[in-house]
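Researcher: We're teaching a course module on how sequence relates to structure. For the next exercise, students receive a sequence and then see the predicted structure as tokens, so they can try to spot secondary structure elements on their own. Here is the exercise chain.
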Amino acid sequence: MRSFLVILLIMSLGSPLAILAGTKEEIIRLQSDVLQLHDQIRMLQKSIDDNGAVFRSLLEQLNDQVAKATLSMDGLNRSLQAQKAGVSSSIDGVREEIQNLSVKLDDTNNRISALQQKTEENQLKIKSLRTLPATTGGEIEPDQAYSAAYNDFLMGNYDLAISGFQDFLNTYPDSEYADNAIYYLGTCYSEQGRQEQAIQTYDQVINLYPKGDKSPVAYFKKALAYRQLERNTEAIVTFKRLITTYPESQEAVRAMQELQQLGVEFDRKPSRRR
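Model: And here is the predicted structure for the students to work with:
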């Protein structure tokens, strides 16, 4: 009986002990869970702090980039403003230049009109000079006849000029304009591509008027006519003769240049004029 009572007591006490044991385990488990939660909270806080630092760094970088972009935009704006001002200034300059060119063009047109009027007047004078002997029964003066042929030469009327110079030379062979008339007659032939006739005519100037002012240029034009005919040997001889005969003339300098172009070296030694 007594043993039974002890057993009952033990049994009655066994339940609270089991409860206490179970509660302790729960507490330990809860404490473990709490610790894990604390660890997770710390890790989360650390992650938040790290991310916050990253975000702050990114934000600072972004602010720096925005500031740099703002500066670049300001510089670009100033550059665009300067370019705009420069373009505006250039446009104003172009407009002013166009106005100046317009004024010059008007002036040129006026001069051309005046020149055309003078040309027409000269043509009328030439026409009147040609018809004067037939209408009056008299003769024109040598300088008038020469001027008529010379004006035809200047205007490129080479056939008329040739006829005029030939008539002048037949009528006034001893005129002071005779050497000029022969020279321009040769030039008319040269302009028409009649180089052989031009050479013969230039020879008349050289032989008949060796001391005239047209002789050096006649030599030079004769040499050029030879070059047109691709007779370079004769052209070289003529250039050299020009240099030695008229060493102080401008044509002698030009002849030296022509010889250099032909690859000819020439020792310039002046000689007496004929």
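Model: If you want an answer key for the exercise: The chain has two domains: 1-117, 139-261. The chain has eight helices and no strands.
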